[in-house]
User: Fold these one by one.
Assistant:
Number 1:
Amino acid sequence: MNNPCIPLGTLDEFVARHIGPREDDIEAMLALTGHDSLDALVDSVIPASIKGSSVLTLTPGQGEAEALAALKGIAANNQLYSNHIGQGYYPCHTPAPILRNLLENPAWYTAYTPYQPEISQGRLEALLNFQTLVSDLTGMEIANASLLDEATAAAEAMTFCKRLAKNKAPAFFASRDCHPQTLDVLLTRARPLGIEVVIGDEAALEGQPLDGYFGLLLQYPASTGAIVDHRALVQRAHAAGALVSVSADLLALTLLAPPGEWGADVVIGSAQRFGVPLGFGGPHAAYFATRDVFKRDMPGRLVGVSIDRFGKPALRLAMQTREQHIRREKATSNICTAQVLLANIASMYAVYHGPQGLAQIARRVHRLTAILVQGLRQLGHHVEQAHFFDTVSVVTARPLADVLAAANAARLNLRLIDDLRVGVALDETCEQGSVEALWQVFAGAGQALPDFAALAADGADCLPSVLLRDTHYLQHPVFNRYHSETELMRYLRRLGDKDLALDRSMIALGSCTMKLNAASEMTPITWPEFGALHPFAPASQSLGYRQLTDELEAMLCAATGYDAMSLQPNAGSQGEYAGLLAIRAYHASRGEAGRDVCLIPSSAHGTNPATAQMAGMQVVVVNCDERGNVDVADLQHKAEQHKARLAALMITYPSTHGVFEDVITRICDIIHACGGQVYLDGANMNAMVGLCAPGKFGGDVSHLNLHKTFCIPHGGGGPGVGPIGVKAHLAPFLPGHGHLPKQQGAVSAAPYGSASILPITWMYIRMMGGAGLKRASQLAILSANYIARRLEEHYPVLYTGENGLVAHECILDLRPLKDSSGIGVEDVAKRLIDFGFHAPTMSFPVAGTLMVEPTESESKEELDRFCAAMICIREEIRAVENGTLDALDNPLKNAPHTASELVGEWAHSYSRELAVYPLADLRESKYWPPVGRVDNVYGDRNLACACPPLSSYQDA
Ligand SMILES: *Cc1c(COP(=O)(O)O)cnc(C)c1O
């Protein structure tokens, strides 16, 4: 009984929760690959030249409860002040039903980007609502499905104007009344493209010629609060052939004449205050809206209405040919992962409140601000704006330092604009007490406070009468029927039920690493200690965040072998951009500013060439051989040919083909010998953590996708975090920010980008420990090789390493089947839906193939279920090949099959059973797609990107 040797142990060891296969499963899987241990398998997968380069300490992880407690301790070092800083970030209420049924609901947050529309109708509808919300409020004809943040959206607007304006002058005018962080990112993005940004006072443009500008950026209301009538300026800009972009506040637009009504060509901004917490700067959805004539040039993803094969309305991502993954070095934007989850929160906020509710919130904020201002004037302060919405700037009657000290004592943040002025912004969460607390801060000793009731009775508002909104918005029924909680809850459930996310089955998306997003990792992101911090509050209030980011940077350095890390980029694409800028700045610091050639293998992800383009580099494509590997002779030749101008090589490792190329160290040596730097795209880091380290085997800089390898959920297409790790020599060139000590320009609006989701990765690493992380990589490799072995007799596995093994993903070649059966990769992808599976990555990096990445989180049972589906599909293809199934009327060509199709007249040459229950266990649990196969061409020809009238659904 009393054996003293029984160790206490941890009760809730996380590693075994995160990793799917059990011990005996692992043995069986290893046996199939012909190895007797994980170490032996990995030993044959990882090339000798990089083996052992990992510097990760193999410590054990912490239990879930223990790690959460540790993080709670860190969070306690953040101070919760009342925030009146404004400047693009406003406290708001996340409606509880949206918090619980959307933000905290895996049906929403574990979904992938909606590239497979038939299993994505729910989130596509939510995004269509977002687009409708934005185009209605801005008064524009078309809006996209989100961008990364307001500042990068402004940068996209700048380059958009440059492409489309008649005026080909080199300069862009940006109002000094834009948010400072917007101007900062604008300058960063303009420099490599040779765009001159002129920051100035638009009032001073009066009477000045505008021919020198291809475009303008104005802010409405201004960053410090004023509402200015820009109509005459817009007319003059148009007369000069320039385009006008406006950064606008969506809440203010419920009361003010929208920019679309006074001539703006582009309207951008943030949807944060529609229910998304401050989160120390992000993630938040930015928006981008424009005129119909410019729609084909819009950056980012666009949801459009099309029809399915029964003619029923169905949604899908429209005009994908505009996107970076197609246009590559001709791309005009590199945005890939966006902010879908946050856009969906904002859209549901509008669905829940409706047009009257939103206007009511806006009017209340404005009234409180007007009362506040009257009181401040009574107290003798000079409020600069005659017309404002919710923000003003104040020249204080008593010393500014005294006011700031009083604000600090009252635990309240104001915006310090300059030596003379403070800014004050109110928001949805403010009430009478907030206004009185502010008066108290501004009042001198012994000064009587204004009488709130008396001022409130007075009732005047301070919106300019010439710019009052007199047009309707959000008239569509979707914004007018879900105002009770019961109705909203069911709407969210209905939409969630239409989609296939990780809460239903595995999503084996090569390159995208759809692994477990554990509940314990997700829990902290909605703690107020992380959610309620303003990114520009004094640093003394965010010591908890500082500890979190310091520790996370150290963890990620240990995982990659790099010396320094920047957490600022809010997607992988932004990390690529920050990395290439660091390389350029490094070369320039050595007097080699002329180095501007970027070598990129033909197999690269589309964001690589798009990013190089944005960084002002010239892309030179390097060939790949028939095995999918980089053609080293071609690489050597091109590196030497461009030796004098070689800036960088961008290379993905393990390769986009899912193989550890053993020549990687030689490739890095060739580039270094020619004076270039190696950008190692770290999207495939899930094959390497704990096994080998890019920072030690030749990389100078890499981005990581925390939303792939490090457990941040995909959110249906964002948020993401794309930190970059660099070797020491590049550390001085990491992104800076007005609120960071570093000197370089910013790439994101907030100093730590999408700060509030960093706890997810911190929790993951802390709970796994170095040992668990290494095991995760080993299991990811084992699972991919297991699938490759199980499926290779049915589908050829396209690329393997020297030893016949793959890394953490494998490519199934379906091209030969097209000739023998007419069945293509898309048919197989759609048929998988009938089996309840999301398709693997289609036609990347090789057209006509499927790239399967199972990840370590899937159990052997789930892997087997997937293999069974793929094998069953292969049998169906064989039946088409030998004529047992009709060449055109077969379950593959007609997939996916909907429930309503079954109850109609059955006109097919195969049975209903074969259509929907091809495997017996589907009778136990079945996913029913809400629409049949979606017609992309129809939707692109008849482009509609806002909520269609309800009649169009009823007619069909
Ligand atoms: C996902 C991915 C990217 C882009 O990352 P985002 O976070 O979507 O911007 C870049 N390269 C590769 C290889 C990828 O798989």
Number 2:
Amino acid sequence: MDIKATDKEYVMGTYNRFDLLIVAGEGCYCYDEKGKRYTDLTSGIGVNCLGYCDAKWADAVAKQAHTLNHTSNLYYTEPCVKLAKALCERTGAAKLFFANSGAEANEGAIKVARKYSYDKYGSGRNTVITLKNSFHGRTITTLAATGQDVFHNYFFPFTEGFRYVESGNIKALKDEIDDTVCAVMIEFIQGEGGVIAQDKDYVKAVRELCDEKDILLIADEVQTGVGRTGTFLASENYDVKPDITTFAKGLGGGLPIGAVAVYGKLRDVMGFSSHGSTFGGNPVVCAGALEVMDRLDDAFLAEVRKKGDFVRKKLEGAKGIESVSGLGLMIGVKPSEKKASDVVREGINRGVLMLTAKDKIRLLPPLTITEKQLDEALDVLLAILAE
Ligand SMILES: *Cc1c(COP(=O)(O)O)cnc(C)c1O
């Protein structure tokens, strides 16, 4: 079968795919149908945190698939419960529910915030403030939550109750807050928006402002969470406790999962019949996620930070690079001459997979990549940028 032609015929063209068919992978490497090897600095967009087909992860998933593949959330299952306990203990969250993607987790977080506000203050207090240049997902509601006009097209009417403020500007947020606001939702590092980290003092001020008015702080850690920034959650880098944290991408190590974790006072907001998901907390997916949780101990995260520093040191000030942004192994590279998309395209020719984010090259390598593997792949990037 001609895979590329058949894809064009039968799969809706919502992606402008690169001319690359990936057939297998191991660690940080993947292979096309001709056996050409690529170093993958994308992790399937921050998903394969243990790399491709990690042996222990694959064993855990396979074992669970042979034992209990799926039942419904009408019954108890062990992997789901173990994962919930592990995630709550790791993050200090009180409780969580599972979803199947980042957008769905963010939808869930918005539901929790509106329910909390409704229970306590009655109707009308339902506005969620998000930041300009944010990205929160592709469903109708999370598109509305996304603070970029380019996403607000075609699919009208979008969900009501979202307003956007300039990030880093606490006065703008203060001015936007009135008695209809129930939550503020932020990414600590805007991923799709161009790997832009929030200022620490700004985030602290947002937290204080929210506390003052009993407005909930929702942290969208779909991309920044699960070790990506060198701490288990990016919020640890910022010394703030959100009221709600959402997870997805890296959590399953390569299988679809999302989670909405709530802290303290939100423990019992979502009672019986307030939410549901057929697949949420699926045993096979949770078995994979448990292996991820197991592996991401303090020593592992210290390595992530070390490798992040190594990347920054190697790239900062190099020829063809204007600036380097991000934290841990979530890295943005702004080229001074070339277009980021051209660099990514040339990277494929030379066997290195990278992402873009706006005008930047974005690197989200598997957290298990070695310094030597990074070194070799970055030499390719630097060569392209220096030409
Ligand atoms: C990827 C992403 C999402 C959407 O996740 P999906 O699994 O694609 O629905 C939401 N928020 C952030 C910050 C993301 O990076």
Number 3:
Amino acid sequence: MSSSDQPNPKPGVMDIAAYVPGRESADGVAKVYKLSSNESPLGPSPKVTAAFAARNVDLATYPDGSAHELRQAISKAHGLNPGNILCGNGSDELLGLLCQTYLAPGDEGLFTQHGFLVYKIQIMAAGATPVSVPDTDLTADVDAILAAVTRKTKMVFLANPNNPTGTYIPVNEVRRLHAGLPAHVLLVLDAAYAEYVRRNDYEAGIELVSANTNVVMTRTFSKIHGLAGLRIGWMYANEAIIDACNRVRGPFNVNALAIIAGAAAIGDRAHVERAVEHNEVWLGRVSTALEALGLKVTPSVGNFVLIHFPQTAGKTAAEADEYLSSRGYILRRVAGYGLPDALRMTIGSEEANLGVIDALTELMA
Ligand SMILES: *Cc1c(COP(=O)(O)O)cnc(C)c1O
């Protein structure tokens, strides 16, 4: 409903379905295991705490608006030119920034059927038209994406690996996607889970960005680096894209503590290795154990699994979610992603993973 005697949001805003974050608590349960937002069970590097202790951060002064220290640390860790890096208040901010910078009403933004919901929200917030492209086997379908490109298409989002499916497409497929796009269409490769992937044919997108003017890669400190609470993301793109986004972004979009923490975290390769190792072990164990219960688990290369439940009364995804919650295990319902019969489970601590396996063993018996 709109009326002229009150401020009305611009057209399209009230059509946006607000993002629903993973739940944090369960009623009446003392000990809760939050496995709903793909956070790291290892938490951040101890170097982050050490950096806070060593630095006397002056909270009364503005942070460095260019996040120079953080960009330097990222460029050193990944061998990139710091001038091609832009940091954000989480990569969510950067996804929105790209939409605000490149999309206008009438433009179309593409994303995949079971892709991250933030893309659709940010495309709509920019006043552009969201276009969902069907997946094949819960995986991005390059031919379908290319077939959906029209004269109005300005941006294509690809989460690789994808959340919430955990699937990925190999680098030759990403290259084929890029090769099929007109040069004025911006390809956004969201590589939030890149560090977890152990596949020879996977690349996060650095080379595609380096070799082209219409590709952006986004990354986050929220997952492998265990810093979701500080909100730190970054993107890698050519100078023209960085320059345009710098005109639109908030001048101090990354806070002083985030700059210090991110720089310390990305320098601690051993901690990243520990997190990858933990995930490698438990991703396999959890997937195998759940499949042994007769549940279908989509093969995942990320730090989470998509578990498919039967429609049998007592064993549906909704009932499993309720049962797990009552025991303190909070997974993610993914009906909003078009997956009403599935739950997404973050790979957690040993205790959490075994607890979920135990609970589902009882439920499925
Ligand atoms: C978690 C996630 C992000 C990261 O968001 P932040 O804003 O950096 O915390 C980005 N993309 C996908 C697909 C994700 O799952």
